[in-house]
Amino acid sequence: MTRPHVLVAGAGIAGPSLAWWLSRRGWRVTLVERAHALRTGGQAVDFRGPVHRAVLERMGLWEAIHERRTRLGTQACVDATGRTLAEVPALMMSGDVELQRGDLCQLLFERTREQVEYRFGDSPTSLHETPDGVEVGFEQHAPQRFDLVVGADGLRSNVRSRVFGGDDSHLRHHGFRVVGCTLPNVLGLRRQGVIYSEPGRGVCVTSARAEDEARALFVFTGAPLGPRERSPDVAREAVSTAFAGAGWRTARLVETLHGAEDLYFDTISSVRLPRYSHGRVVLLGDAAWGGTLGGQGTPMAMVGAYVLAGELLASPEAHAQAFARYESRLRPYATKCQEGASHVGGFFAPRTRAGLFLRNHIYRLLTTKPLERVFEKMVTHAATGFELPEYAEAFTPQSDNR
């Protein structure tokens, strides 16, 4: 059998993870990324429980991730005077191990760059399925035929919109907007985090790596974003407007935002799809089941890549059956993990004073000694609710086919 040739759109986490598994078995993988270089920004990402750990160990990444791990401790919910109202333990925000998303992107790129063809600064413009493949048009490269196409290009997937229809019908907005970025550590934090909230708006600031650097997350109520509203300038203006008159040290953080170079601006939304595949095209990661925050997007992307690769390698000439098994296994797990995205906005920015009081009261209770175990189960139950399939034979490397 000739080596299957797969086009993967998206060089974030899901795409390179899938490429790693497939290329080890001799499959040809072309990975196309709209950005002109590897995107190494983003918030910290965490892994928790035996399912996540098993996938990382099978990829040989567990030790490498620990070498790059952040060591963020508790995060304090404070009032306008800086007084601690409740504390959120590291288990909830950082899991068993946490690292910067950019560090993980770099790790995956380094481990696939020799076997995988990366095309940066390009994106599919058309996908036309034929009896024996998919003819793909590109912005920069000449059209090319592939055996399969995988859309691993994020919450606002280009592949999904071209094959399954526009985003509006597939993205469920949860009523909040979010801006994330790197800022100078003006609060002087050391491996800790602070959350300040008022009704409908909240900011979380953490410092877990360089002492002069912090990550900030501004969360506030708002309508869905229009197609031209996601620019850095619009993000800065949106935060300035939303946090005008806010207490604590918010004004200083908003002022510092104007020098940030890695702004991320989006709504808190989640993807709802009736199916993950159509013909020879399949979706993976955030493109299939994503949530902007709180949906365990990174570990789910890597678990999903493991399962999709396992099913394809088990029956390479029967992609339809492989896609069906992949979705049957993953959908219940992904849907459960995805639920976090519908609640995360209300955690950082409760809509009412009563909701803010209730949040602080609940977390004070949950972090007391008698309820420690209950709290631990609450924050890990979705991540651990999956039985990882065994694909030992399918994943045996075939270096002679490279």
Automatic annotation (TrEMBL):
GO terms for molecular function: FAD binding. Signal peptide: none annotated. Pfam families: FAD_binding_3. It comes from the Bacteria. InterPro entries: FAD-bd, FAD/NAD-bd_sf, FAD_aromatic-hydroxylase. Residues 5-337 form the FAD-binding domain. This is Aromatic-ring hydroxylase.
